[in-house]
Design brief:
The structure is a homodimer.
Chain A: H1 7-14, H2 18-26, E1 34-35, E2 41-42, H3 45-59, H4 64-75, H5 81-127
Antiparallel strand pairs in A: 1-2
The first copy, chain A, binds a DNA duplex through residues 6-8, 17-20, 22-23, 26, 37-41, 58, 63-65.
Keywords (chains A, B): DNA-binding
Protein name (chains A, B): MerR family transcriptional regulator
Domain HTH merR-type (chains A, B): 4-73
Chain lengths: 128, 128
DNA sequence: GGTTGCATTAGAGCGCGCTCTAAGCTGTAA
DNA sequence: TTACAGCTTAGAGCGCGCTCTAATGCAACC
């Protein structure tokens, strides 16, 4: 029916280690992963999409606790769509603010780099 | 001569806790902080600028180890200006890449938010 | 003299997100 | 038959960046 994936294949597709995939499952962010005859995890295509989404959340520095909360809402079905949207919007603006801060700080670093360049040129000139 | 600051004033000016200020000094990122008659730290204006710069580095997610390395170079004087610039440039491009990644992921989150909005409207329409 | 308040130190403790270990099971190949 | 590869689990361990604790000291005020 479905073509199911081993943990190694899942690892390759998501960039998460097998250890981390088991850990995510253990903390409750991955429910209903099926097993084959040998008791090995057998991930569906839907599992892949979900884990890839988790990876995005993680890359946005959303804490595991929050991701777990989001997963729980998702498990409860469509009635939680509004709350899920609010969570995403909250993180969206947090990350936007963080990006502004990074931009500001990058500017200050750029200034410092320019200042250093000036110093390096002076030293060169001095040597001559 | 100089007007020197207590650790509390330094804390207020930099946003770092007194604990953290002592920690930064202990790991070697703040050398030559003077003391008053009672043995209390007495920070100079130059110390303030330096700590504020450390805060910027920290906000750019530069590890303490790297910041310590940078501090050591700075202590060695102007001969290390070139190496310091290279460090800053390396982090600059790392952060730029990270910001691009954040932007991409924010886009995906925005899509999801739109998708949820659609679902919420459908539910409303369905109820009517 | 006693209390309050603010500082000092060395070192312990903590929350986070993994990351790894040990012991065990199953199927395949030599 | 034996070795190996790949998976399973519970739980220990780790690196990071703080954050806090306990014991102590000193100056000012009641």
């Amino acid at each position: 029916m479905e073509n199911l994936l081993t943990i190694q294949e899942m690892s390759r597709l998501t960039g998460l280690s097998a250890h981390t995939l088991r850990y995510y499952e253990k903390v409750g962010m991955l429910e209903g992963v099926s097993r084959n005859e040998q008791g090995y995890r057998a991930y569906s295509e839907a599992d892949v999409s979900w884990v890839q989404f988790l990876v995005i959340l993680r890359e946005l520095d959303i804490p595991i606790r929050e991701m777990k909360r989001y997963s729980d809402l998702r498990s409860q079905g469509p009635s939680t769509v509004h709350e899920r949207r609010l969570m995403l919007e909250a993180h969206q603006s947090r990350v936007q603010q963080q990006m502004r801060k990074l931009g500001d700080n990058l500017g200050k670093i750029a200034d410092k780099i320019q200042y250093y360049k000036g110093m390096e040129e002076e030293v060169e000139a001095g040597i001559k």
